[in-house]
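User: structure tokens for this one?
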Amino acid sequence: MPSDHDYSGSPGHDRDHDHDHDHDRLAPRGEQARSFRATTLVVVLAALVPLTFAGWLGWQAVAKGKDATVATDGRSVAAASAPAAASSAAASSAAASSAAVSPTAESPAAQAAAALPLAGKVVTIDPGHNPTNYLHPQQINALVQVGNGSKACDTTGTATDSGYPEADFSLDVARRVRAILQAEGAEVVLTQDGNLPWGPCVTTRAAIGNQAHSDAAISIHGDGAGPTDIGFHVILPASVVGGGADTAPITGPSRTLGLDVRSAFHSATGEPFANYVNGGTGLDVRSDLGGLNLSTVPKVFIECGNMRNATDAQRMTDAAWRQLAAKGIAAGLTAFLIQQS
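Assistant:
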């Protein structure tokens, strides 16, 4: 490569002059180079500044975008969480409500039932005899022990002269009494509901009331006395001790029950006290009835009328009168049970 000092000049050309001349020409080029570099630097810097600023702006945009995304995501998460939170809150509220209702808390229906006058009371109703006893003479005539002796398991009962059976009468009235007492909140047990072919025996009838832990029990009957005898009466248990019987604990409360039933039945039906029993007091005391002797709960019998008397028979065959009879019996039981409370 040629050197900067290797020039071909004309003859007599002073090389030193040439050299000085070259130096003079080169000096401006250096300045121009430096000026060019400075200009280039300025241009580069001028270019870099906007680029840097643009980059900064871009970085800010990206950063803000990320922040916006995070914020948006946050809102999305919050929005997505809101239903879950609301659902969780609702579930918590429901759980709290459930927890607030303790296991012992009662529903409105249960509270209404508890407010009934006979709520928690148990009553056993014994419909005398059985409509189909007559088909089972062997079974009903078997002897059973009633404490102070033996008696037939059960009997067919009496009937009106027109043939209306005592067993049908007693079962119909018993069912009516049950409906009334249940409406007052009582638990009612029937010794038979027309669902047995015969009986049950008088011993079983007493046992049903005992096993139910009855607060009161009553056996419903119609009497079969002479045609001129009229009226109703209530039978109370006598004092019987022995042979598995002990009525001592129940004679007092049974008498109270009997008096309540006598008063209420008379008021409801207008039926007079029987004119042929115990001086017309409407009360009798007997020791030969297994249903009373073997009872361990307060219990009475009621003979609602004399089915062999034409006047009483007319009443007892009338469904409307039987409803009155049921109301009277139920009212007597209710009065007794409320007193005992």
